[in-house]
Input
Amino acid sequence: MRGLTCAVVAAELGFLVCLLAGARVPAFAEAVVVGVVAVEALLLAVAYRRGGRAALRDVLPPGARRLVGHELRVFGSLGLWVARRRHGVPAGAEAFPYARGQAVMMYAFAFVCVVETFGMWALLREWPAAHRVVLVLDVYTVGMVLGLHAAAVTRPHVLTGEAVRVRRGAWTDLRIPLERVAAVRRENRYTHTRADGELHLDVASQTSVTLELAPPVRYLSLLGRPVEVHTVRLHAEEPERLARALQERLTQGRTGPSPALDRPA
Output
């Protein structure tokens, strides 16, 4: 089933390129693709009936499935951004944004992509096939760049009474129970060396808060590789407020609430 799925995706991409280029597709090729799609749909229906959604998830490799999920989250963030809504911030939780540090760079990158789109549109007008294909890719690139920034805006760090949720756009989302946080440090770092057990959620190559975890927390990379993390470095627009709020939650959780005093008779 995985082989058929890959064949269907490759065939659909090939047909899309042919349609954009204005090329004619042989009738037998269309019949073959329709047949493969029908067989794939039948196998998916049988798998769903036997194993439910878990069986459907097994059709695609975990890495490919996570990449598709990332793309969907990125473009879904554009809708949240337009609606001025935030993802994963429940009532009573504190949100700590971090996207301001990358805003100028992302807007500049989007502007360059728009200029490149118009430039390629003008240069390739006499080659309709290349013109259409490149135009679709350029528009997709502009949407992806804006979506990446929208994901950072709409997915801030979140602190609740039980956990701190650290994020970096649609790329990283890690929930850390407060009992796993051993120490909180307010420190600025502008260079980060990769080391085992460390997770760097830098924004514009900067982190401002460091969390020491004990015991470590399991983190899944974008492609699904598990990593045991004992140190998390992240950035926030108000790092002092984040460090202070997190330290207060840790102190309250470890000392417990003060006992109520009996009223005098």
Residues 2-60 form one domain. Residues 47 and 53 are 9 Å apart (CA to CA).
